[in-house]
Design brief:
47% helix, RNA-binding, Rossmann fold, 3 domains
Length: 490
RNA sequence: GGCGGCGUAGCCAAGUGGCUAAGGCAGUGGUCUGCAAAACCAUUAUUCAUCGGUUCGACUCCGAUCGCCGCCUCCA
C-alpha cells in the first residue's frame, strides 16, 4: 500500500515518492508571532502533527521544519502599541505559542527557525536573484521581477493579466510592474533594521521561507504545507524566489489545509468571530478539540460551534468508555473451553481494524474515515462485551484487550485516547461535579439509602432519589455489581 | 470580474465508475431493568443541489444552471 496526498500544484492526488527513499522532508509555514493563537492555527498545527505522526507510523523518517516569522509590519506596529521592541513581542508570543502547542500535545518540529536568525541567508539569496536578472534595487528596496519567471502563477493557477484586472494591488512608485513583490525593505526611521548591500533594512515576508527551507531541507524537498490562504501570494512567491535563485524545482508536493469558520465565515478580527486556543481549552479537553478537528478531512472547511464541540465530546467519551469497559475486565473467573463470543463477522471487523485505518489514512490522511473505522470497531467491541457471560472465555478477554490496545495506538496518531481511560472519565466526572449542586459523598449516601429502598421494594422513594439526583444532573446506572453514577452533560 | 472549492438523512460527515451510499450526534421501536440509564439489536437517503451528456452501468467523469464559501491586500 502507498500513501497518496493531494498536491495543490498538480491539482491531483499523487503517490508519495520521496526524493531520498524513506525520508520525508517537510516545511510548514508557521505563525507570525504578535498575538495569541486562534483555533485556525490549532488546525494547522494539528493537521501537520497528525501527518508527521502518520508518516512515522508508516516507517518514514521525517525532517520537519516549521518557521517563526518574528519580524514584519504587524509585529512592529503591535510592539509600538505596547511600548516594547518587536524582538521582545515576538519572543513573548513564540513562548505563548509553545504553551498552547504543549497543551494540545503537539510534538515540536525538528527545527523551528526564526526569520531574524537567517538574515544572512536571505541577503545571499536576494543577491543571487539580482545576479540572475530576477530582481532589482530601487530606493533601498529590492523587488522581484514577476515577468522574469514565466511560470509565475502555476501554484495558484492564475495569470498576471487576470490579477492586474483585479485592481486591488496597491500602487507603488518604486515598482516597475505592479505585481513585483518586495524582497528587501529599506528601513524607515525607528524600525528594526539589518545591514545589507542595498542599505539598512529588513527582509520581505516571503524570502524567509525560501532561504530557511533551502538551508535545512535543500534546494528541492518533498512537501511544503500551510493554510489555503497562503497559496497566493506567499507560496507562489516562494516558488518564484527559490526556483529563480536555484534554477531547480522547489517543492515536489504542496499540502494546504482548509479554514476553521464560525457560522460559515472565515474567522477574522474585523468580524469579531475570533476564538483563541486558550478560549477553547478553558471549556474543553484538548482531545475534544483534536477529535473535532479530525472529524472532517483536512482540506475541507470546518465550522466551529458549541453544538459541534458537544458532538465531539460525546464521540470522544464513547471511545473512552469503550476502552475503560475493556480495561475493567479481569480474568479471575474465566473458562477455558472454545465457546467464543466472537462471531465470524466480528472477527473480520476486529482483525481488519489496522488495515482499514491505513486504507483511510493512506488516502490523503482521511481522518474522518479513520474515525469511522474506530467507531465501527467500538461497536463490535461493545457488542462482544455485552455478550460475555458471567464466566467468559479467557481468550475472548485477551482478544478484546488486544483490540483496544491497537485502537489506542492508532488513535494516538490523531492524539486521541492518549490518557488512561478511567483517569479521563474520572477527571471529567470530577470537573463536571464542581458545576453541580451536590458533592460525591452526598451522592454516595443517597445511593446507599436507595439501595435499601430497593431491597425493601420501596420503589417510590427509590425513584424519588433518582429523580432528585437527576435534577442535579446526576444520573444513576444500576448494574449487576451495584449502582454507578455519572454527571450528565447538558 | 478572474481563479479555486463545496452542495450526500434533522445536524455533522466518509465515499479512488459496478458489491447493502461508512461512521458520529439526535430521534423512534425493542432487549435488559421493579421502572430507568448505559450498552446491545432494529430502524431513519430507491437516493447523493437541479438539468442534460458520456457509459452496459455515475454520488463518483463531462457540460450547463442555481446556491454557498474562499483567494485575488495581511492572514492558518
Amino acid at each position: 500500500m502507498t500513501i497518496r496526498t493531494y498536491n495543490t500544484l498538480s491539482g491531483k492526488k499523487e503517490i508519495l515518492q520521496t526524493i531520498e527513499p524513506g525520508h520525508v522532508k517537510l516545511y510548514v509555514c508557521g505563525i507570525t508571532s504578535y498575538d495569541y493563537c486562534h483555533i485556525g492555527h490549532a488546525r494547522s498545527s494539528l493537521a501537520f502533527d497528525m501527518i508527521v505522526k502518520y508518516l512515522k507510523y508508516r516507517d518514514y523518517k521525517v525532517t520537519f521544519v516549521r518557521n517563526f516569522t518574528d519580524i514584519d509590519d504587524k509585529i512592529i506596529a503591535r510592539a509600538n502599541e505596547q511600548n516594547t521592541t518587536s524582538e521582545e513581542l515576538a519572543n513573548r508570543f513564540i513562548n505563548e505559542f509553545h504553551v498552547d502547542m504543549d497543551k494540545l500535545g503537539i510534538a515540536r518540529p525538528d527545527i523551528e527557525p526564526r526569520a531574524t536568525e537567517h538574515i544572512d541567508e536571505m541577503i545571499t539569496m536576494i543577491g543571487e536573484l539580482i545576479a540572475n536578472g530576477k530582481a532589482y534595487e530601487a530606493g533601498g528596496d529590492v523587488y522581484y521581477i514577476i515577468d522574469s519567471f514565466p511560470e509565475y502563477g502555476k501554484l495558484s493557477k492564475r495569470n498576471i493579466e487576470d490579477m492586474k484586472a483585479g485592481a486591488r494591488i496597491s500602487i507603488n512608485e518604486q515598482k516597475k510592474h505592479p505585481m513585483d513583490f518586495v524582497l528587501w525593505k529599506a528601513a524607515k526611521p525607528g524600525e528594526p533594521k539589518w545591514k545589507s548591500p542595498w542599505g539598512d533594512g529588513r527582509p520581505g515576508w516571503h524570502i524567509e521561507c525560501s532561504a530557511m527551507s533551502k538551508k535545512y531541507l535543500g534546494e528541492t524537498f518533498d512537501i511544503h504545507g500551510g493554510g489555503q490562504d497562503l497559496i497566493f501570494p506567499h507560496h507562489e512567491n516562494e516558488i518564484a524566489q527559490s526556483e529563480g535563485a536555484n534554477g531547480k524545482p522547489f517543492v515536489k508536493s504542496w499540502i494546504h489545509h482548509g479554514f476553521v469558520t464560525i457560522r460559515d465565515e472565515k474567522m477574522s478580527k474585523s468580524l469579531g468571530n475570533f476564538l483563541t486556543i486558550r478560549d477553547i481549552l478553558d471549556n474543553y479537553h484538548p482531545e475534544v478539540l483534536r477529535f473535532f478537528i479530525f472529524s472532517t478531512h483536512y482540506r475541507n472547511p470546518l465550522d466551529f460551534s458549541e453544538a459541534a464541540m458537544q458532538d465531539a465530546t460525546a464521540g470522544l467519551d464513547r471511545l473512552y468508555q469503550c476502552v475503560a469497559s475493556i480495561n475493567e475486565l479481569d480474568k479471575t473467573n474465566t473458562r477455558q473451553d472454545t465457546e467464543t463470543a466472537f462471531g465470524e463477522s466480528d472477527l473480520l471487523k476486529i482483525d481488519s481494524l489496522e488495515e482499514r485505518f491505513q486504507q483511510a489514512m493512506d488516502n490523503d490522511f482521511n481522518t474522518a474515515q479513520a474515525q469511522g473505522v474506530f467507531f465501527d470497531t467500538v461497536k463490535t467491541i461493545n457488542k462482544i462485551r455485552a455478550k460475555l457471560s458471567e464466566k467468559p472465555l479467557a481468550t475472548d478477554i485477551d482478544k478484546l484487550k488486544a483490540t483496544t490496545s491497537i485502537l489506542k495506538n492508532l488513535a494516538a496518531i490523531m492524539g486521541l485516547l492518549c490518557e488512561d481511560a478511567s483517569t479521563y472519565l474520572l477527571t471529567k466526572k470530577q470537573d463536571m461535579l464542581t458545576n453541580c449542586d451536590i458533592d460525591a459523598d452526598a451522592i454516595e449516601a443517597l445511593i446507599i439509602e436507595r439501595k435499601q429502598c430497593r431491597i425493601d421494594k420501596n420503589w417510590s422513594r427509590s425513584d424519588e432519589i433518582r429523580d432528585e439526583l437527576l435534577a442535579k444532573n446526576i444520573e444513576l446506572k444500576d448494574g449487576a455489581d451495584g449502582t454507578r453514577w455519572v454527571v450528565k452533560s447538558k
